[in-house]
Amino acid sequence: xxxxxxxxxxxxxxxxxxxxxxxxxxxxxxxxxxxxxxxxxxxxxxxxxxxxxxxxxxxxxxxxxxxxxxxxxxxxxxxxxxxxxxxxxxxxxxxxxxxxxxxxxxxxxxxxxxxxxxxxx
Length: 121
Description:
The chain is α/β, with parallel strands linked by helices. It has helices at residues 29-41, 61-69, 85-92, 101-120, and strands at 18-22, 47-51, 76-79, 96-99. Strands 3-2-1-4 form a 4-stranded parallel β-sheet.
């Protein structure tokens, strides 16, 4: 399956789904475990990942969307516009909203610090 076909506009996503927001600038094992746990909590509800804007990201937003779309537990991916991500979330009418951006930022920072320490020692 071409996982890019999972990337939809907000109007095409089913309502009453589980929505997970994040930057998905890098997808680590912990991110996959967290998404799997969210999916397992409501297995009959579609899981939609919303890729938020990240001006200083490692990857462009479209590449980040393709990265998260490749995960088996993710049914759909929506790319959030820079202008109004909160309006997008409201339009999706999620049954459950899980925000991962803070946890992802911490994990990204920790990984970058780890790599930097390894390179300088």
